[in-house]
Amino acid sequence: MVKKNTLGRGLDSLLGVSLEASDNVQSVELLNVSDLEPGIYQPRAQMDNKSLQELAESIKEHGIIQPILVRKKKDHSYEIIAGERRWRASQLAGLTEIPAIIREISDEDALAIGLIENIQRQNLNPIEEAQGLLRLKEEFGLTHEKIASAVGRSRSSITNTMRLLNLPEEIQGYLIENKLDMGHARAIITLPVMKQLDLAHKAVKRGWSVREIEKRVNRIGVTQTKKIKDIETQKLEEQLSDYFGIKVDLRENSKLGSGVLSFSFTSYDELDQLLLKMHFKNNNKNF
What we know:
By secondary structure, the chain is α/β, with parallel strands linked by helices. The protein folds into 3 domains: 6-138, Conserved hypothetical protein from pyrococcus furiosus pfu- 392566-001, ParB domain (Alpha-Beta Complex); 167-225, no CATH class; 231-277, no CATH class. Helix content is 49%, strand content 13%. The protein has helices spanning 6-15, 49-62, 84-92, 107-120, 126-140, 144-151, 155-162, 169-176, 182-188, 193-206, 210-220, 231-244, 268-277; strands spanning 29-32, 36-37, 68-72, 78-82, 97-102, 247-253, 258-264. Strand 3 (68-72) and strand 4 (78-82) form a beta hairpin. Helix 1 packs across helix 4 and helix 1 (6-15) runs antiparallel to helix 6. The relative contact order is 0.09.
């Protein structure tokens, strides 16, 4: 029996999809590596050759410990849903067959499995991870809380990771190339764009540590800069503004779990409309 793991629990809480044995799961089979194809929903844009070679050496010594997950295609080949690195490393190790679980899986579930497997195993660079989380949010309509539960992270971790997509493309490139890490990005993300670029360039050129870039940010006076709102907050503001028909501003303090919700009206007619939406009867004749 396949041992239930974190990935299975995450998928089960997200979509009701589990890697546990069920009516749709066949027993583990040995498949020819040439009959397998990479999954079309693989979130990884690149795979590190060195780590693949290390995995290949491990496979030579210990074999494939965990079967890959596949689904059958109409041409009788198989599409890899989870385990592409193991498949590629197996070929480097000279294997001709690989153990696999064959399952009927929808396109939506294939996307979720591929994303969550890579996120939980930390196989993605920060930008690939942020893009994967955003896809889970937009393509499945999931909240940050639901995603956090599925991948075993805190809500704030999900939000902060997705905020990386607000950074300029050049800085995102540094993260993809491993020239900067999440700590560097978190330190500069609240700064104006030009300051972000300036510090990022210097950090890469001079090899600054996260602590060093944090010192530089503090000297700039980051507390006086306007904090960039996360994607979820911005969308909620837009939804509230559309509903009430006036500008709505939402500011939150994630550390304290508090915040301020304010409304801006340009006429008493707009104020009356707001009060009506709130089902509040205005008895003040001055308004």
